[in-house]
Amino acid sequence: MLVVVRKSWVIMLVLLWILIFVCHVAFGFYFFHGLEAPPELEFLYRAAFVCAVVWWLRADERHSAVTPVYCQGMLVGVGWLIIIPYHLLKTRGVRGLIPLLALMLSPVAGRIASVFVYLALPN
After folding, report:
1. What are 24-36's pLDDT values in tens digits?
2. pLDDT for 54-83, tens place per residue?
3. Do 37 and 26 touch, CB atoms closer than 8 A?
4. CA-CA distance, 112 to 99, in Å (whole number)?
5. In angstroms, rounded to a whole number, what is the distance separating the alpha carbons of residues 43 and 50?
6. Dihedral angle, C-alpha 95, 83, 59, 26, nearest 10 °
7. Which among 5, 21, 78, 111 is least surrounded, fewest beta carbons within 10 Å?
């Protein structure tokens, strides 16, 4: 019998990447049409980003020796730019640069995809 080990932190990391990618495709689509993105989209992106990062950190803390923080949402909301790289480098070492690089390239990939969507649709 084949036993499949589920790594919930990988699943949450992929979902976080998809969230960032899809939102930046939408932001790029609005930008190329000369429109401002609706404030609802920006609010939902910011709220979903904080929630996704907190869920990812909670799923990852089961597999690492990181002590949980009392209010993860506030901590991530304020310092996510420092917390994510520090957490990845502290728990995985140099291998932590791979998911960090994927997270950094997802907005770029989203904007590139929005260019292709803009060019593919008739004006």
Report:
1. 999 998 998 899 9
2. 787 777 776 666 666 666 666 776 777 787
3. yes
4. 20
5. 11
6. -90
7. 5
